[in-house]
Write a structure and sequence with these properties.
The protein is of the alpha/beta class. It has helices spanning about 30-45, 55-65, 95-105, 145-155, 160-180, 185-200, 200-205, 210-220, 280-285, 300, 320-335, 355-365, 375-385, 430-440, 470-475, 495, and strands spanning about 25-30, 45-50, 70, 85-90, 110, 125-130, 130-135, 265-270, 290-295, 310, 340-345, 370, 395-400, 420-425, 445-450, 460-465, 480-485.
Length: about 525
């Protein structure tokens, strides 16, 4: 045989989309992992039964809302009767193994959390946007990395991808109703293929009933789908990016008048999106001879820099040594007469140690030029639809740090219903922070949000209440850097926030208290 074909690559999984509607799925366990399994099963319209002597707050809510059937006891073999799938999420590995063995004897597919050799299948890291579902599997080798890959894929999708799929589904149904003949299936497929392949996804997402009627008429009349023009009032509403002229900043210090004298600019990188840099910050980065950057500066901001980038090497327990290293390198370059930009995340003077750096370089004869940046404390929540103040809801905002110099918990005032609390650098201590807030009178049903990587393309917002947020984050994981927002303003714009381009739709099911 002269013709050859590609060889299969072994070691993969057979990836399918299982139709679980009205199927019976049994979940053994009542903790945060079980809650995640329950949510996935409910999104697939399955009939879910949970067997556990105790439920986490989210599962208690679902049981009370009659979204699941709860058997308030430990597992019994009779629970398998009628089950189409079994998921175990318990800490007893021996019992998980026994349940899995029993399932295999009865030819019931089973997944045992964290015990790979018992699993007939694995759960993948998924992104959901309307009917669009994207799943990433590392075949159980690097689940945490799968989450990162999934977020990267999701952030690269055009805005409105899920809505575009919904609209194409509506149009496809209308075309089949108007032309149901089997012999025309190829014509229908070819016409829709042209539409899907050549129209921008953003344009497809804007289709309304009138547009769909126009496209249906074009199909019936055998017109090319590209001949149909869709006009939207929002098409010309976008503001162009500013033209950044290359001209020198006007220095306000005597340093520039001295020969071979370096120049120091302290620049705030803002919230992560290079389009949200100030024009002056952008110009400073273009004129720099070297940029001394914080470790967490997003790649998108670093990509616009043309000169050498020296990154702070901050490791746990060695922050002071890293800061000294930046000071040393800064003084070396300034002594050579270089233009040195010290690039700090957010605004340098909002928990950024900017004042300390100004004083240090001043003591060595260099005055800093100041270029402020957007602070994530205010603008991070705003990017995901959380106004830190809102008339009639929140008339003040308090910003504190969860990472005090000596590792102590922050000092928190007594709860005030009209105050929004923003806590920076605290998500890793979330459980302690929640306990601290509860001690100071913060109510259990108070809305809480975790905003991750504010302003970046993979920004994510996870919502819950003071009572549920720890379990929600335990299930969803955390992608630093992040901040905590607590207050009634969190949900003021929650419906609008879902439409924001920075939100990850796969987390919307984690709004456990809304």
């Amino acid at each position: 045989m002269s013709q050859t074909f590609r060889d299969p690559q072994s070691g993969g999984s057979l990836i399918v989309a299982w139709q679980a509607k009205a199927r019976s799925i049994l979940i053994v366990g009542g903790g945060a992992v079980a809650a995640g399994r329950v949510f996935n099963a409910l999104e697939a319209d399955a009939n879910v039964t949970v067997v556990a002597p105790k439920l986490c707050p989210e599962l208690e809510y679902r049981a009370q809302a009659q979204q699941i059937t709860w058997r308030n006891r430990t597992f019994e073999d009779s629970d398998l009767d009628g089950s189409d799938m079994v998921l175990t999420a318990i800490s007893d590995a021996r019992e998980s193994r026994r349940i899995a063995d029993t399932c295999k004897q009865r030819r019931i597919p089973v997944n045992a959390a964290d015990i790979n050799d018992l699993c007939d299948f694995w759960f993948m890291s998924t992104h959901r946007d309307h009917s669009v579902q994207i799943a990433v599997s590392t075949n159980s080798k690097a689940p945490r990395l799968a989450n990162r890959i999934r977020r990267q894929i999701a952030s690269s999708l055009p805005r409105g991808t899920g809505q575009a799929v919904e609209q194409i589904g509506r149009l496809r149904k209308r075309i089949r109703e108007a032309d149901p003949r089997p012999e025309n299936s190829k014509r229908r497929m070819t016409w829709l293929t042209q539409l899907c392949d050549y129209w921008p996804i953003e344009q497809l997402a804007k289709l309304d009933s009138d547009n769909i009627d126009s496209l249906l008429d074009a199909y019936v009349q055998d017109h090319d789908p590209q001949s149909v023009r869709i006009h939207s009032a929002s098409e010309s509403s976008g503001m162009p990016s500013p033209v950044l002229r290359s001209r020198t900043l006007t220095p306000d210090t005597p340093n520039t008048g001295e020969p071979n004298r370096g120049r120091l600019i302290l620049v705030g990188a803002g919230v992560g999106d290079p389009e949200l840099l100030t024009v002056r910050a952008h110009r400073a980065l273009k004129e720099a001879d070297i940029v001394l950057a914080d470790k967490l500066i997003p790649e998108a901001v670093l990509d616009i820099i043309d000169c050498e980038i020296y990154t702070a090497r901050k490791f746990p327990g060695a922050a002071s040594e890293a800061q000294d290293d930046l000071y040393r390198r800064g003084l070396e370059e300034l002594a050579k007469g270089k233009c040195v930009v010290r690039l700090k995340q957010g605004d340098p003077f909002v928990y950024g140690r900017g004042g300390e750096e100004v004083l240090f370089f001043r003591s060595h004869g260099y005055e800093s030029e100041m270029v402020p940046g957007l602070s994530s404390a205010i603008n991070g929540p705003g990017l995901c639809g959380i106004p830190v103040t809102h008339r009639g809801v929140a008339d003040q905002v308090l910003v504190i740090s969860g990472a005090n110099r000596n590792g102590d918990l922050p000092v928190v005032p007594q709860f005030m219903a009209t105050r929004t609390l923003v806590i920076l650098m605290a998500v890793k201590r979330l459980e302690q922070i929640v306990g601290l807030l509860a001690e100071h009178g913060f109510p259990a049903d108070l809305p809480v949000a975790i905003v991750e990587r504010a302003g970046c393309s993979d920004q994510r917002t996870v919502r819950g209440s003071l009572h549920t947020i720890v379990d929600v984050v335990a299930r969803a994981g955390h992608n630093p850097p992040g901040l905590i927002v607590a207050g009634y303003s969190v949900n003021v714009l929650s419906d609008a926030a879902i439409q924001d381009r920075y939100l990850d739709p796969s987390t919307l099911g984690l709004h456990s208290s809304e």
